[in-house]
Structure formats: structure tokens, C-alpha cells
Specification:
This is DUF4374 domain-containing protein. The chain is mainly β. About 5% of the residues lie in helices and about 45% in strands.
Amino acid sequence: MNMKRLALLAISIGVLASCSSDDDSSTDTATNPNDSRWITVAAAKMGDDPGDGNGGTLIYSVSSEDAKNPEVSIEAFDNGFIAPSNRTARLQSSEDGNTIFNISYAGDTGGNYTKYTVGGGQTFTQTGSEISIAPYVGTAPRWIKLFDGDKTGSAVYVNTENEFDEEGNYTRTEATIGVVTLDLENSLINNFQEHSVPLSAEEEAAGYYISRIDMPTLNAAGDKLYIGARLSKLDPATTESDSDYEILGSKTIVLDYPSLLNPTVITSTVGHGNTNGYRSINAFEYNGSVYQANQSDPEGSHILKIDADNQYDDSYDFNLDDALGVQGAYVLAWRPAANGKAVLAYRHDGSAEGVAGAQGFFALVDLNAKTATKIDAIPYDPDFYLFQYQGFVVDGTEIYLTQAPVGENGNIYVVDTETGEVIKGAELVNVTGSHFIGTF
């Protein structure tokens, strides 16, 4: 039975599986062996421009066995399930891969939380009730799943307002953050708090303020929530945006958890720049501490460490420029396994400029040894764009990722973080101007 006939048969029985091989013994993608894990591939469709991802998000799941099989072909753009979202969906998965969590981003449904049971192929069955977090954090929320056994999600926002004295002179910019926690199991709001979060008087007088926050992360004790922050600056004399200024030490907002009270700001003396990340989780708990990437650091991205005392450990100096032998390393996304070894997506000053932006690469990172090595077994292309990358699957010491240039076919790759072995897996079938944003 050839691949075309097998695909037609799959459609006729309602499976819509685009996963096949050239012989009759191929495994149906809707069958997931007991010792396997669902691997859900996320595909971002082009809107107006190649690589913008604004045409919506499609998801398609296969077993981990099929994800590792280069004879398998995954056609997520043609056969995938449309994840509700006006633009690129903000997806999370349960630790076992059996559930996908989604909060729609922007549009009429922006802020709507839904979850789905993974059934293989394009089968994602909605479970539980929907809830909107838009009244708390707006229709384009920045949210993440906390690592507490798939129980809780958290979304955040920040609003800013310039303040002036009686003579009309600028004094500071008020930054008001909002934080909501969401019961993922029962679709309920757990808590919501708003806070004014000031910087030092000296920093504020110079025009610095917190302009964006994202990526809430629980500490090991589960009693503090860390929120990454981006700082911006205006010219106090004109209140116009200032683009040429000293980059301050990386900062994180710390809240009591689960009360979300008592905000404080901690500052690194090792790393400078932002800690809010972008589309992917930016900080992870490992071995009692939280390890956090920073971005837009003048000395290249660092992996920073926050210890159990809820302060930066400035004796931990992990500079990715030095480790990778590049200039201007910029962490786009990353994910560690339980052994403290991680896969990291990055670009740097030497990246080629592709159709959608700077070329991306993957590296294998060791948090204990503070080493990072480019993964050469994965092919690279100037159009391999990772700025919007969202998800990695961790299964034991293995990490699954997607590789495909914008508008071109690629593959799933599986990295054994313990041995460094790389497996080339299932083919990812692309369409014009679109790209893949990870595994879940």
C-alpha cells in the first residue's frame, strides 16, 4: 500500500492521519503504546508575511515511537487541529503529554482558557469548561503553566503611567502589575492581585521603569513566584523613549505564593538585560534553585541562578558568548531535563538574516558544568527561524524539538542530553511562509 492510498484510507475512516511508511506494517498514529508518550507538534501558519505565524496555530500528535521514525511524515498544516486563537496560540502541555492547555491570544476569543485530551493525529477532545481570564489580564495574556503537577497556570500584565510634580516636571513612571493564577483542573480563578512595583529612586529619576513582565516560575519551596521583567527608559527631560542607555542588571519580581502579595525586586550583578523571555518558558527550577535565561545582555545572554534565599547567586557566572564562542548570544527558548542538561535555542551576531529574521541554532547545555555546545547533528539554514519557538518535550533524559526552515520541510530531532546522541525523527511537512514552533 503506497503512502497516498494509506492517507486516503485514513481520511475515509476519520483518522486523518498523515503518518505512514511504505509497508503494510506501519503503525497507526492514533495508537499510543502504554510505554509511549504523545508528542504534539505545533505549526504556526503564515498571516501576511513569511514566518509571522499570524495565520493561526495547528497541532498534531504522534506517539514518541513515530516521532523518532524518519519514515513517518507529519502534515500538521493540512491535517492538524486548529488551536483556537486569533494569532499564534499560547500552548502548554501536561507533564505526561496527554493534555494540551490553550489560552487564545487576541481577537474576540482572546483570554479564553480551554484544555484538550490528546487522542492522536488531529484528535484533541475538549474537556472541562472554558473560562475567560480577559477581565483580569486582557485579551492578549502572557501566561505559563507552573511546574506544580499541572495544577496551576499564571498570567501577568503591566500598565505604566508617567508621573509629574506640581511644576509639570517628570518624576517617575508608575508600573502596575497584575497577576492571576488559574486552576487548570477545574477552570477556576484562584487569585488575582495588582501591585505597584517601583525601582530604586535613582533608577526611576533617570527614567527607568518595568515595561513588560512574563514567565512566572515557582521556587523549589513553592512559596515564592518569580516573574521576569523587561526594563525600558525614557528621557526625563522630554518623556520621549530613550533607545541609547545603560542596560541595568537583570531584574526579577518576587511575590509570596499563593497569596501573590509582598512584591520585591531582585537584581543580578552578573547578567544585564531582560528576564521576561518571549514565547517560551524562560526560567526553570532545578536542584533547589531557579535557573533563568536573560536576553539583550550587552555581553551576550547568560543563564542566571536564583537560590533558595530568593536572591540572585552572583557567584554563578554562565555567559553563553564565552561558552559557545560567539558574540551577542541571545536565548530564544530553552528547556532542561531533570539531570540539569538542557537544549537551548539561540541566535547570535553572526546569524544569517533569513526571510523572517536571524537564523537560529540549538545547543546542548550543562547547568552544573556551565558549558554549551552547538548541536551540529541538526541541519541549519538561513531561514531556520526560532524567535517564536515555544515548546520542547522532555521525556526522561531525552528532549524532542522541531527543525524546519520557514516554508520548507524539516524533521523532529530527539536529543539524549546524557549522551549527546541525536536521533533524526519524523518528517515535518511545511507550507509556504509557515514554520513549526515546537513540541508539547
